[in-house]
Design the sequence.
């Protein structure tokens, strides 16, 4: 049986990632800051295999994906016992959006290192945050290749689980190393942010 996917945040990235996992046959639990009933339209769009839940239920999945605004990250601390959970950080540390897209001052830390401070004991992997959702929602197979999704993290086993899931939905995972080094390339304003690359073969 495939790992369950719990998504906290049902905006553009959350819905897009959910769509890929549902299509690949993964059980998906998706949540937002409102009642599950508010996601009726999203569930109708995603189809069988997706279920609307509360964030605390999404956090119980085998793999949890954070796809919520940066301002809501601190509120995750007391949501559940994060110790040992595999969590994909798909957030970007924007404090404003168009047209200026300002980012938070993190005192030299990678944004996912800050997320780690709020999710004590979680096995964090950075992924799904670099590609604009309009590109991310497209077919991951492009000609003879597959769209690249970068991953970084300090837990090699968690990275392997996430990379396998990424491969299962048709993307090509590329490991950038640790959170302190790799995720800085991925995060908002990083060198790899917004790049749409295809791995051939």
Sequence:
């Amino acid at each position: 049986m495939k790992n369950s996917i719990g998504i906290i945040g049902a905006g553009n990235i959350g819905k897009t990632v959910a769509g890929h996992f549902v299509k690949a046959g993964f059980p998906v639990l998706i949540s937002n800051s409102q009642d599950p009933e508010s996601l009726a339209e999203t569930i109708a769009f995603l189809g069988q295999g997706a279920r609307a839940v509360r964030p605390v239920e999404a956090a119980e999945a085998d793999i949890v994906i954070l796809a919520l605004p940066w301002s809501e990250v601190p509120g995750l601390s007391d949501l559940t016992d994060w110790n040992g959970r595999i969590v994909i950080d798909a957030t970007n540390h924007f404090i404003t959006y168009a047209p200026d897209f300002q980012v938070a001052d993190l005192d030299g830390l990678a944004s996912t290192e800050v997320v780690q401070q709020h999710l004590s004991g979680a096995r964090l992997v950075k992924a799904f945050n670099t590609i604009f959702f309009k590109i991310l929602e497209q077919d991951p197979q492009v000609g003879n290749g597959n769209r690249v999704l970068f991953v970084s993290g300090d837990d090699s086993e968690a990275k392997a689980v996430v990379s396998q899931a990424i491969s299962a939905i048709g993307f090509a995972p590329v490991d950038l190393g640790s959170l302190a080094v790799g995720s800085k390339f991925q995060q908002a304003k990083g060198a790899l942010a917004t790049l749409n690359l295809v791995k051939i073969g």
